[in-house]
Design a protein that fits this description.
The structure is a homohexamer.
Chain A: E1 34-39, H1 54-62, E2 68-69, E3 75-76, H2 77-80, E4 83-88, H3 96-112, E5 116-121, H4 126-138, E6 142-146, H5 167-173, E7 183-187, H6 195-203, E8 206-209, H7 210-216, H8 218-229, E9 233-239, H9 261-270, E10 275-282, H10 293-311
Parallel strand pairs in A: 1-4, 1-5, 5-10, 6-7, 6-9, 7-8, 9-10
Antiparallel strand pairs in A: 2-3
Helix pairs in contact in A: 1-10, 3-4, 4-5, 9-10
Chain lengths: 314, 314, 314, 314, 314, 314
């Protein structure tokens, strides 16, 4: 199996069943450093649904992306990091807890084989399953969360404990997130309760709102992230609604007033030296993405996270 | 509270928050014969999701419809049958069994107050909840099912028992459907197993495929339905994928090769003298209905079922 | 000015600003037998609006059509009938009566120059303006109306007399329609009042519902039309909602249960020997026509009416 | 009647017929401080039409919004200000002057009962009707207009005086706007005449173009607004085309080159101490809003105006 | 490599990168009877372009289809015929002749390995490349063409010989089609020249127009096809514009007035005993298929052709 | 022939077949200074296709634009520069080299008659044809290219030399571009090879990436452009993917992270004193532009280039 993607200067991008960035589809995990895995569950979506179609939507636009990253010294990401597309975890529509169990199992297989998982959600509940799998190997994780919502509510409809709004409270309770080394970035918009943001502080997270992010500037923010994480094994979760709906209309719960795509990518490209043991891009909803710009941005974000990881490999 | 809908010759249809056919929104159940109720659960959808938005999509196009039914002697449906829109049942995303329980409770409230429920799904799993509620009052029900699939499978993903593909096996097992007086109409398309259709026969249902339906003709089919039901309390469930995708693109699991809208309405308008104790239109998915023709057809079908019921009232 | 359209075997259809069927855009009326004219008013629309964009939407798809009509003896329509696209009448948004006056004036210019107008609406109110212009030359007209609604209501919102729902009552009152030689075909669906259909009979029209149309068959219907018109100067108005929404989703007031495109074109191709002094296709709404099939059908209907006319020219 | 909206942590947002922010639908005006009212007229639209569907489109996305406003001290807007959704004013399609009269009457009912109206247009002509109603109680109003166009032209097509392009000249002529205390913000783009902007200065308005707005910065702009209004009863009209088409594609007359959503909300959140006696968001056109981001932004803007008002109530 | 597709009762259809009907993606041709191959060239499109995205669009909806065909004795197609998805041929955008050469080479590889190719176009020019590849093994082929156009024109723009409008004249000239045993079915609509249909007769083809097809009825038509083919190695090419645009809006050159999906599938299911050595479905254009019904129909047609072939295998 | 566009205060914008900015459609080139010409070739598109429909899509939204440019001293562009819309060049689908030849010929006709061409692409390959035509009169041209990609690759699929990715290498080789006076602005995103950007430097171009553009600021950038061009005859080519996909979703190869519309227009409005001998806006793809904001921006950019030119005319 070749470890390099198909050359888009020879074979047009629209030819072939699209894997992420035209990477080989894995038939074995041997020899791999990392894997792209789709996590097509939208069972946790409190409003718009359809994120089950997100992994393939992201793949379809990821074929626009190329292997060399000029923002990190023109490294060829795929020469540094052997990575394949392993397809999707299976899920159980209508049964969120079963779905999380299936996802956890699929991601665990990757982690146990020594691979770094690059997940494509799915609604934000899938991150809990990933954290469970990754923390089993790496212990309580430093979480770096880009998101317009904290997702640290306690319960949703009928007192149920699992949804896209609760994963980071659950993860803290389960001891798989280390909130003292975790940070949430991008909160904004109206609130259910005055405590919507402070509840994360109460759990031990650091929180930077969208307004605070722009006030401090990206260099300061990047330093604050690095200080918070303090070199520990980190998981980056990128909820696409961190970005303004103009740049990412196709999300589950859009929130007006976020950064644009250029600002977002600039911020990610400034991150350095994170010990990235897993990451995901979640909440892409292709039902609301007629021009595929949200899918392209989601794929670009994941590719930037790959470069962040690849840079730390020799 | 007026029992008549808003007059669309005086106030344009686009004015106001749309209820079904611009009916009054119920503030009490007193004095009502029937109620329209939305059942916005898509937790059971094995493929496309989004039927949670169906009740409001059907309402939005139902405002095209008018109270007089020329196919049943120019009766004014709303003078015969006092009916209101009671809004939607609540559901629990990600927890199909909780969602069915909430739906059952909401429909039970209507049935206990003596109202005939006219449901707007939601995926086909919601019908199980309705049947539970209605049968509690009327006993095992004669089911008249228009559908391209039997929905009598036993289990789905991970061996789970509740989904859009299992309600009529569950209903038979629970004793709330009387299969000996029930009939499924419209099956077509490729099969998972050779038993996909015969499994319904094994459960005791009568089954008429799309091909058989056209071979026998509608007059014979209507007689067969009447003979099967034999005057018992009947529940009509209309899965919008009974119709060809050209006329109803906005469904969860489209199946090419069905009847068109004219044929469908002609068939429904020929039904007579059913003791209708409940009914629904399900599987509308507005995410795939850019011109709203599926929503219009779903609303028209429900309005024809109202006329069928109203005709039996004096 | 050439009287023949651009050759689509030489210059691809997508090249150039589209006129109807790539006809020359008129710079003079001299030497012309007929003209295509856009009537972009949607001031009369009681529900969906947007028909102001219909003339150009029909033009954009009309470029698919070719000059030879095999259903009328392979005649080359444009060799028989010299016709150009004269652009659009101007209108006054928000002022329906002004808009009708401007349309009447534009159509009158054509009629006075001896041209047969082929109009592209616009909502159905525009037909009243056309009838006023055409009848000034030809006297009270035999109207052949294909439509799912009678459009013979008296008044709409606030007692106003002009709308898409009233043109044929107004036309009868004004003496520009001769109802004794007119026929309305295709009525169906639910009614505001039991009199929605009979009001046309009371005005003197013949009425054939969709159900009656299929019961009698097209040969009998064509004879009934011919007998009714009795050789008098006739105006054909084709409301696109005559057709089922599956084939024409892009209309102002869709009505489920109509004929499909094949049946519709078959009916039109059977018409013979009408003394056609004007015609239109109305109620196309491109806002609800994502795949442009409604626009293509509207253009095809107009092209068939051109062939009907051309056949009578030597 | 409860004065608090439905709790979206208990009942999912997609359940129920959507009112603005899930507020109660008013059955009486008693006890209310304010009301949301839809103004679904697009009779004044000179180009794209469809704003008649805007009020319900804004309602459908407003259910994303929550009652606590963190930008104004975490106030619960609905505990401070008792507000309900009163549905829509009725209109008369095709008759803009009748439509304005109906809107004026509906808004007057609210104002006379002591309520502050929060309008959802409709094209910009509806603001004239609101200003007539509100000024009857409060006298000539200080107008704060966010818009990319001045809308102070004199006449449109056929010399007609009412359209989306003329309301603020009419309002000045009618003495219901006090231009000396009014300000127009956001003008940009190409012009019909060199006087398109200066005509507003000639009428007495202050005008700040988009370029000037960014040059002076928001703190200075907010001061300039406050100084201009000088504590008088003020009406804020927010034309959604103030925003760049990337953030608000669904408008009637888009103008490239405006502020993004974050900038727009930042500006509104800086406004303080306005004596707000009425306001609206207009020109939303859902026909061009496939991902509903324009509707979400329109709803968010209205919610921010509610918070601005609520902050001044004790 | 398993020869059976993924079980959609165990793993939801939306999980995984979609191959045709969830078949295994071939890593070798050994042991296979047939192959699905995408032919993503739209270089020959004279009007709408975008068929390059068709193979993946058909795959995405093909996952709705199941292995048992009840119209041919409940056979399990994939137990009878070992088939895999081999991905797409490569093409050269802007160079149609290079593209055809690449396609011919890819299909030849399949044919030489003894596989029956099931192609997914691409515009109709791709069929010429397939015919070249297949005829090299089987000699001049009996062509069964379902299409609304003959595609036997001689030259297009600038006198160029290759386009979607010329493949069957080229194929006849090249001796790879045996017109005396070939038949074209479904021609309709307006013509460029009176000879558009007769030119096929002149080349030696049998031609059945849409009107003639309905006049003779499907049993007679099926006999006529069988008699024409006379047991020779046959290639079926199915241009999706054979179907009415209501059922297949997403095509390159739609032609109003064709059969609906039920009629189309009924016709294909009646075909028996064809010695099928290759086939394709072409002209699907996903750019005009917002609800994916054209893609579903294209996939269903290809699945029916698989069943036709599988029935002849033991 | 009037040289002024239709007055949109008298005749609504939606009336009439749209030419660019409602300019007269040329029937002669005499007396003209410039011409708008559509270049509808997408034969060079390596990924998304559909730019063949771009010229008419840009025309349809250009009707929003008005003749007075307030950013250049309120000049009336059309009084300074007599300009007409000459329609589209013809092309040969599937034959990119023939298409370029036809385009070159059409543009040459304009240039030879002394007109400045304002082209609307089409994919970026069309610019090569324009440069050939313009340089024949003006010699090697100073190229000012706004683009997210350099388009200076050597070969694409099958070693072919013409595509949207190669025009500026070809133009340099052919001696029609003077790279020493040319500049490429806006490069960003991932790369095929580390040399993707440096290959332009190797050819002699100056290159400014998106990041560099924002670092230096627009005043410095404008000076750098002027210094580079040094007063020579210049051609501006504006690839719409220079802009962020949020503002221009409808392009062939979107690249996340570009400037927004306001920044883009601000930059263009700062350009002064260029000896503009030709220009174009390319890569607009209306298939991915549901709200027409990309088309509006493309039209606005072209209008700004007209103002830039008009300013230099007396």
């Amino acid at each position: 199996m070749s470890v390099l993607p198909i050359d888009s200067l020879e074979t047009p991008r629209f030819c072939g069943v699209p894997t992420f960035m035209r990477l080989p589809q894995a038939t074995t995990l041997e020899g791999l450093d990392a894997a792209v895995i789709g996590l097509p569950s939208d069972a946790g979506a409190p409003f718009r649904t359809g994120a089950r179609f997100a992994p393939n939507a992201a793949r379809a636009m990821s074929i626009m992306l190329r292997p060399i990253n000029p923002y990190r010294g023109n490294i060829n990401v795929f020469e540094r990091m052997r990575i394949a597309d392993v397809g999707d975890a299976s899920v159980v529509p209508g049964y969120i807890e079963d779905s999380l169990a299936r996802i956890e199992q699929s991601v665990s297989t990757l982690v146990e084989a020594g691979l770094t998982p690059f997940g494509i959600g799915g609604d934000h509940s899938v991150t809990l399953a990933e954290l469970r799998a990754v923390s089993r190997k790496h212990g309580p994780l430093a979480l770096i969360q880009f998101d317009s919502h904290t997702d640290t509510w306690d319960k949703y409809f009928a007192g149920r404990r699992y949804s896209a709004g609760t994963p980071f409270r659950r993860g803290t309770e389960e001891g798989i997130i280390d909130p003292a080394h975790s940070i949430q970035i991008g909160m904004r918009g109206s609130l259910f309760q005055p405590t919507d943001v402070s509840q994360s502080l109460d759990l031990g997270f650091d929180v930077v709102t969208t307004d605070q992010m722009f006030e401090m500037g990206f260099p300061a923010l990047v330093e604050r992230i690095a200080a918070r994480v303090a070199g520990r094994p980190a998981f980056i979760t990128f909820d696409l609604d961190f970005v303004d709906p103009a740049a990412a209309p196709g999300v589950q719960t859009p929130e007006a007033g976020g950064p644009d795509a250029r600002q977002t990518l600039d911020l990610l490209r400034r991150l350095k030296g994170i010990d990235l043991v897993g990451c995901d891009v979640v909440e892409l909803n292709p039902m609301y993405d007629p021009a595929q710009i949200s899918a392209l941005l989601a794929a670009t974000v994941l590719a930037e996270l790959m470069a962040l990881k690849a840079e730390t490999l020799s």
